[in-house]
Target: Sigma-54-dependent Fis family transcriptional regulator
Amino acid sequence: MIHLLVVDDEKEVGTFLSRLFSMKGYHVQVVNSGKEFHQIDFNQQRFDAAMIDLKLPDCDGLSLLQYLKQKQPLCKALIMTGYSTVKTAVEAMKLGASDYMEKPFVDIEVLEKQLDNLLNENDDLNQHFIHNLAKESGLIVGESLLIKELIEMAFKVAQKSVNVLIEGETGSGKEVLSRFIHSASPRSHEPFIGINCGAISESLLESELFGHEKGAFTGATQQRKGFFEIAGNGTLFLDEIADASPAIQVKLLRVLETREFMRVGSSGTLRTNARLVAASNENLQQAVEKNKFREDLFYRLNVVTLDIPALRNRKEDIPLLVRHLVERTGQADISFSNEAIEKLQQYDWPGNIRELSNVIMRTLTLADHKQEISANDILLSTNQVIPIKKDPPNANQSTENHLEEWRKQLVADFNEKDELMLEEILKEIKQLESTIGKELVMQALQKTYGNRNEAAKRLQISMRKLRYILNEKNQT
Ligand SMILES: Nc1ncnc2c1ncn2[C@@H]1O[C@H](COP(=O)(O)OP(=O)(O)OP(=O)(O)O)[C@@H](O)[C@H]1O
Model:
């Protein structure tokens, strides 16, 4: 028989839950205060599940939860909370609660199902399911306890409609985690839309987020839907939220408070049901203290905060990540020697998994189909040239800069020198061809995660030509 403990100071709630679950054949014990809770002899009485209200007159539900989990770790705890205490309920999940439910109970069937699911859940099976789902979203869970707990927490909050704030250093996996939250949520069949708030101007960001009417500004030749509209019932991922301007922050706050927004140039309001996941490299709490970020918006966004650990704090995950990153390039038959892995584990990874991914790609590219990568093949010392930030815009920019510098030099030579040294200019042109060629190949490899076939296809050149360009690189 299932033994259920209900802790709630509202007598009617206790009576209702007692009736509901007794009818299902459970043995239900109800207590109405912390004092009554502590009168239970937990050494004698075993509970399979407990439903605990967070707010009790004589104590805090969290402390009861901690006590119960310490005495009976296998007992599944379900937190009961009002809307205003959802954030604390999420904290409770970090302390061992399996789930939470909001009061007043709207749908009794959902409530019954939630408890049934908890009682029937097999922890091993569940973990297996979560890890597989994560892998499908491109997220390797790894061995470290820190990350395992984080992913399980992310999975649980994915089921709710609360806003999530993801914090972590650059390249630590904030975007992949947000995609996982979307895939694990009941919204997984709806769109996932991501936008980087730091990458575009304020006016463009406003129009991207909220859309615009025809004629709203110069160049607005057509009406356009914004991301809040396109996301519909799906997930909107706001990356680098700390970089959103004060004006955009006000507009976001309004949407979060009212769920309403207006297209630029329109006075009609539209409603959104999208779930917001925001991410930041910067500690948002500190940004609030520096008056760089609105406090009210911060509280709206961080109902749940997920902190992704830096790669240097989870080095035990490097072997699994390396395997995943190698497979991602389509070269699963290549392995890394133990010494090579050790070398990777000794490094501090300021650019986190993105930097690791770049190093792996670079190593595989230069090792040219070697079956086993040795420590010597890994070029960490050149990491200054490995772009840590998202590369495509930077890479394009670097090609443009190159061309521009070269053009300036050539014009200066034409104007300053009396005699034109054609031989030298032709040599420089050859040099430029090779530099730009290499840069474009490296960009294509970056975009295709090092997959040479795919890169050659995108550049519309043969594999032989691609190898030729890369081999030239080896010689320089
Ligand atoms: N747990 C993981 N498993 C596998 N790959 C990962 C994991 N975390 C991150 N990556 C890979 O690392 C790279 C960077 O990840 P992502 O873009 O999610 O980082 P980010 O924290 O959002 O970066 P930024 O701060 O620059 O926005 C991507 O190629 C991603 O696929």
